[in-house]
Amino acid sequence: MVVTARIRQAEGDLDGALDAIHEAQRLYMPDFIPDVRPLPAQEARILLRQGRLAEANAWARARGLSPHDDLTYLREFEHVTLARVLLAQSTLDPSDGSARDAFALLGRLLRAAEDGQRTGNVIEILVLLALAHQVRGDMPAALAALGRALALGEPEGYVRVFLDEGPPMAALLQDAANRGIAPDYVRRLLTAAVRPEDNAGNKEALIEPLSDRELDVLRLLATDLAGPEIARELVVSLSTVRSHTKAIYAKLGANNRRSAVTRAEELDLLSRARNRP
Questions:
Q1: CA atoms within 13 A on the CB side of 224
Q2: Whole domain around residue 255: which residue ranges?
Q3: 196 in a domain, yes or no?
Q4: Distance (Å, whole) CA 245 – CA 238
Q5: Which of 60, 221, 272, 274 sits at a 20 to 30 Å CA gap from 33?
Q6: What angle do CA 13, 15, 21 make, to 5 degrees?
Q7: Residue 249 lies in a domain
Q8: For the stretch 21-33, what's the b/e string if a residue is b when 16 or more beta carbons lie within 10 angstroms of its beta carbon?
Q9: CA–CA separation, 205 and 183 (whole Å)
């Protein structure tokens, strides 16, 4: 249900995403694995996107969260969510100190995530800092933070961490494009940001485009090579090939190799994969 929520959110169906999160919470069974992305925090993020700030604030109070808390990895997702709440609050009342608290919290979170080498979290925090600077009108600082996020995100093909921020991020990405910041990556992100209804007839409207490395794997999936042979061809481990293959299946809505290749042919992805340098 969590995956369903993410897909619905990517499609712009926030009510559907919220319903899926509620269902996930109903079915959730605690186990011995630490819950580093608690469902209530994911719900609070959707509430923020719906403009339901009071309810997101109520979540933060119920969790006892403060921008001055000691930071731990187990609560990092919650504290990043709290920073989002503070930034949303600051847009409503710039004089209440929320922006100051948000910047201070994001700075501490960034240092902690960098020290822990948690790249995905570092990128999200940098994205939030970029958007916060954008709201304040400090475009040099906004583009500097975004540039760092893009440099980290490009090698692994991160997409949703940027696109989920909506029109403000699209505008910032356009500014980055105008200044020649990560031009190829930014162009792919801006292309992916086009809504399906704005791009009717484009068969390549995936929820999340394939990364360059996934295109390399896809090209070889269309051959007779077995998994170990694909790994040797790409000079990577078999587990890496399997991880990329799993991601390809998820993005193409396929459940096996043949259906993935068929779907890729329908979307004209194989020609792109074969023409990669």
A1: 0
A2: 212-274
A3: no
A4: 10
A5: 60
A6: 105
A7: yes
A8: beebeeeeeeeee
A9: 21
Q: Which amino acid is at 76?
A: E
Q: Which residues of 46-75 are buried (b: 16+ CB within 10 A; e: fewer)?
A: bbbbeebeeebbebbeebebebeeeeeeeb
Residue 26 lies in a domain: no
Give the residue from 41, 24, 27, 116 showing the smallest Cα distance to 84. Answer: 41
For residue 201, what pLDDT is reported?
Answer: 40
* pLDDT bucket at 70, cuts 50 / 70 / 90: very high
- 16-47 pLDDT per residue, tens: 888 888 888 787 777 667 778 889 999 999 99
Tell me if residue 96 falls in helix, strand or coil.
coil
Number of domain units in the chain: 1
DSSP H/E element including 205:
none
The pLDDT value given to residue 205? 47
147 assigned to some structural domain: no
- The CATH number for 251's domain is 1.10.10.10
